[in-house]
Amino acid sequence: MLVLMLPAILVVFTLLVVPMGWLFWQSLYAEGGFSLEHYRRIFSEGIYWNTFALTFRISFIVTLLALLMGYPVAYAASILPQRWAMLVLALVILPFWTSVLVRAYAWLILLQRSGVVNQTLMASGITDAPLPLVHNELGTIIATVHILLPFMVLPLYATMQKIPYDLMQAGASLGGSPLHVFLRVFLPLSMSGVLAGMTLVFVLCLGFYITPELMGGGRTVMASMLVSRNIQLYSDWGAASAVSVVLLVCVLAIFYVVGRLISLEKILGAK
Amino acid sequence: MNHKLSLGRILFIGYVVLVLLFLILPVLIVVPMSFSDSRFLSFPPSSYSLRWYEAFFGHAGWMSAARTSLIVACATALIATPIGVAAAYAINASSHWIMRYLKIVLLLPLIVPVIIVAAGVFFIYALSGMLHTIPGLIMADVMLALPYVVTAVTAGLHGFDKTQEMVARSLGMNRFRSFMTVTLPQIKPSVLTGAIFAFIQALDETMVALFISGGRNQPLTVRMFTALRDEIDPTIAAISTLLTAGSFALVMMMVLARKQTPA
Amino acid sequence: MKHNRCMNVTLGSSLLLGAVLVSSQSLAAGQITFVSQGGAYQEAQTVAILDPVAEALGITIHQDSAPDAWPMIRTQGTTGQAVWDVVDTPPFHCVRGGEQGLIEPLDFSRIPNAESMPDEYKTPYSVAYEFYSSVLAYNPDAFDGNPPQSWADFWNVEDFPGNRSLRNHPLGTLEAALMADGVPLDELYPLDVDRAFGKLEEIKPHITTWWTSGGQSAQLLYDGEVDMVMMWNGRVSAIIEEGASADFTYNEGILQNTHLCIIKGAPNLDTAIEFLNAAIDPEYQANLPLHIDYGPGNPAAFDTGKISDERAQELPSSPENAALQVLSSYDWWTSPEGEEAERRWLGFMQQ
């Protein structure tokens, strides 16, 4: 059986595990020997500190927004009759199959100063002057939520679908109002889906590159951009590796903690 | 009471519809943009033309990028599917403790942030002379596609009754033949799903390709990324309309394949 | 039986694939990969220079574009895996790259067209290709007859309200900041980097977008995303021609040029040198101003009779226009101070 595993393992091993080990080693290597210099720099220099703070802030906001937007959609899909549920899911999955680049392009059209959103806002009298919706952190967040929302909805739906409808009816027949039943029965039972979705979105967001690069107006520098610039602009593998290792440790720690509560396959299975 | 309930329900439905619009509108808006006559981003376009489709099909650079992408995506599906199926079969057949860990290793490409994957692959390729080559792109995409293939096929094997293969083997077939004649036809939909996932994954992959491709072997996504960053070139809208239509067709194929053979 | 067919298909497609891979690599003769900065400028030089040169030499020119070629020059030079041959980039990249072993030194005996060029248009690693200027461009509709005319105006957010954009790169931007701070044009170099970043700190909150490529700057002004922007003069002219409401001034413009240089270990070195020589041929060079408002890198182009006197007057490098501007010093940008200023930029953007 191990022979059958070998080709797949070999590919992942040479292209992923080995370079990760090398990155780890690079991050500890400076001036000809073992050194924590790169880590000291990360934790003391404003550039790195600011970038990590920004990365975590954006990831939190994106995760929260995705939950607020994704939960009701998944709930609707789980209680609607099959035909409607399929439609809702199809609408969630369709953008999933559209290139991230294309969606960034679409958001530029929608959010720019003379774009559709600003025109609508001004025509309806909500604002007098166009709002700065893109080329900044806000634009980055909007586009990132759009890209990651399906990663929230799908695990949520997978969990909710398994909650037996009888249980809800039983709650209702015991005299609970629909809201009461929802809060006391449905919500707690859907928590593992919430956890899976939040983990997935948060972790994907931590490593995001394309939307901040294209929508951030040059000043929304997230951790992944720091890695890429250190490699491509300065050939500074030490700094790039240290940032990568910190990022990776954060991700693995999150997976480890969440993995104690729900299985790893459950988080990733919905992808 | 009843009235209040329906008001709440209307608000709820309204909210869900809004979120769905948020999801779908940006995907749809690209289609009319692709027929715009202007090179700038005004929406709705003031006049319509096919100039961006002409720009795509008539430009050697775009065409060569499209060819690179297709070659890479086909090769990725052709390579990732058999080795992914083999791995999934092994995971399913063996109950050895090491399998659980090996399975996690195979899921790593999904867990590790893609920027780190990109940096690592870039480093390995810089050492081995695989930078800016098509085989390099293919191998990286195979690695990234493996988790999808393994997950899809493991799910398929899960619903398959192992004893059937046992029977075939007891009739004297070797393991490989019994797999090919008994098991494979029954898990075909999930293998196909895995292959399509691998194909689309490779077609859509941007981040790693940004690091490891260059010169004449750039895939479509890398060209699109630079065109978007550098020019906000509406040719992207035309390409994306084609791509969306293409992947939509693939998804439909997948759904149909599922319908034909209920797993 | 069925699986057999399946295997055959797989085998067949892999063979086909192999054939495609091999054939795409065996086309090695008489071609180069040429890299410039995309957009209107790259389109103009394709018609003016690249296509005629390709025809004359019987070679194929593959084009690539990069708004900032430096990261790729570094990557290709340090990994020893060049995919580019000739790069059109600011001279300080060529010289710095040359000094770090990333750019081929040029054998001028094989570049006869460079002979007549003034010495200041050549470096050991590169020759001048074209002249352009980083100018203050604006949307006249936003200023009601009183548009900004200097970098001091650009920095003056009270009298000239509006959305602003600068390039996400220190080259030219530091010069503009110092001019806004009152440094006379002839005393700019060596740049007072601390003072320049201090002045940039002032305008930073008012910058809507830091653009990364010429095409993006054009897009921003055309779409009304910004009201004033420092951008390349040829890009402004291009969108004015497309009907945009835009204008610019040469006053306090930063006159720059780009050079052609060859990546160390370029895959098509010989063809690259042949191409480089042809690309600075006065005849082809004289075509460039006919397609975009950029001046030829080889001054001999003015003697070909192709460029009318009126046209010459409009170019950024004409004596009249040049007098209003400052000539960018590649010497300074090649120096360690210049390199340090470039490094400092990323930190500045993130604070």
From TrEMBL, chain A:
Localization, UniProt: Cell membrane
Tagged with keyword Transmembrane helix: yes
Keyword annotations of the record: Cell membrane, Membrane, Transmembrane, Transmembrane helix, Transport
Gene3D superfamilies: MetI-like (1.10.3720.10)
Main subcellular location: membrane
Alphabetical list of CDD domains matching this protein: TM_PBP2
PANTHER family, sorted: ABC TRANSPORTER PERMEASE PROTEIN, INNER MEMBRANE ABC TRANSPORTER PERMEASE PROTEIN YDCU-RELATED-RELATED
Entry similarity comment: Belongs to the binding-protein-dependent transport system permease family. CysTW subfamily.
Protein name: ABC transporter permease
Organism this protein belongs to: Billgrantia endophytica
Lineage: Bacteria, Pseudomonadati, Pseudomonadota, Gammaproteobacteria, Oceanospirillales
TrEMBL record, chain B:
Protein name: ABC transporter permease
Main subcellular localisation: membrane
InterPro entries documented for this protein: MetI-like, MetI-like_sf
Gene3D superfamilies named in the record: MetI-like
GO CC entries: plasma membrane
Compartment list: Cell inner membrane; Cell membrane
Biological-process GO terms, alphabetical: transmembrane transport
UniProtKB keywords: Cell inner membrane, Cell membrane, Membrane, Transmembrane, Transmembrane helix, Transport
ABC transmembrane type-1 domain mapped to chain residues: 66-254
Native source organism of the sequence: Billgrantia endophytica
Protease in keyword set: no
Family: Belongs to the binding-protein-dependent transport system permease family.
Transmembrane region(s): 12-35, 70-92, 104-128, 134-157, 178-200, 236-257
Source taxon at top rank: Bacteria
Topology term for the membrane: Multi-pass membrane protein
The UniProt record lists the keyword Acetylation: no
Pfam families tied to this protein: BPD_transp_1
